[in-house]
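Human: I would love a firmer grasp of how sequence relates to backbone shape in proteins. Take your time, and here it is.
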Amino acid sequence: MTPRITFLGAAQTVTGSRHLLEVEGKRILVDAGLFQGPRSLREKNWQPFPIDPAEIDAIVITHAHTDHIGYLPRLVRLGYRGPIYATPGTIGISRISLPDGGRIQEEDARYANKHRTSRHLPAEPLYTEGDAYACLKQFVPVRYGAMHPLPGGARFQYLPAGHILGSAFAEIYFPNGERILMSGDLGRYNTPIITDPTPVDHAEYLVLESTYGDRLHGDEVAADRLAEILTEAYHNSRVVIVPSFAIGRTQELLYIISGLQRDNRIPRIPIFVDSPMATTATQLYDRTVEDHDVDMRHLESVNGKSPLQPEHLEFVRDANASKALNRRPGPMVIISGSGMITGGRVVHHLKQRLGDPKTLLLFTGYQGQGTMGRDLLEGATEVTIHGQPIEVRAQIERLTSLSAHADYGEILRWLGNFKTPPRRTFLVHGEPDAQESLRSKIVAEFGWEVIIPHEGDTAEL
């Protein structure tokens, strides 16, 4: 029986990564992410899964971002009972983020029901905190480089992807010895804390992300720009609000700020990480040393303290302490989720402070189509938060060089390691313009066959 792949998500969009492999009658799902962004995408999370979850034989997870793992509790709730394979780092993050996601969904549903801000009454969470804890019992750790069996006679190993802690390429071998490399999200070179993406020189088939397939991150030095912003904020008593992904981006920001302090390039401005998930994730980053790069290990040994713990840093777990930040004057920095302002505590901070011209809203990552983050970045003068119109008078700034996703130059650099071309390369996890741009670049540079699948498309391998 010829193996085949069906693209159930992240097809011509950047979220909802779900790819179904069928090998000798067995079904292996690679990633189980949430669709995020505009309502038309989010509503897909509520639609029936294309196959009965009870008929999936195994799940392989590439990394722990919500658009790759956020649907797992829902799948388990709907009947999936098999193993969920992931690296130890990914499991550690999942233990933090999945229950937190369930709590947030329950809180949002309660808020919507109390204030009647939802079209659906009663509003319900997609999954609960209890569903998340049930899902976590099915995780099975697989370390980098350890070959592990899969149903249907397949087997696989993880290779470091350099994206976030625990992120990996899944190199899956079919019974005939051929392989498909599932990239998950491709990380960048020379980024703090974690190792670079692993070079790969051969795979018969490649599934490749394309988030930044039409863009370069530019020559901006993030530390220099951040030093300017924080110094100005300190001297002018401004409040800097940073919508930040709790996993990866928050830790990178703390690493950079810590370095700026060591070099005496910034004043000691108070910093608040207002996210229980980011707080616990930072602790996990500190202790998951197998993912640390040489620089991270050196700083830990030389300084005797974590590079993720700058001076005047306070982690905020308690909701009342979070609310109290809105009564505190600047200068200060509030790093809070979610990264695209699709929910979480940052929404409440912006509700209180977007109308104040002394507020500086600093974006540090990708903002998906249909998100409040994208609207603000593109110059919206008013946004709606909890059903209320909020005038935008805050200053908007953006760091362009902190993305955890490779840009097209870095993608092409990584592809250059292949000694023989894949028979077919499938581009996923990108918006249509970015995908078409990357497809053209790969064809021009390497002459490969590149396919951009639609959702629901199936290809024999």
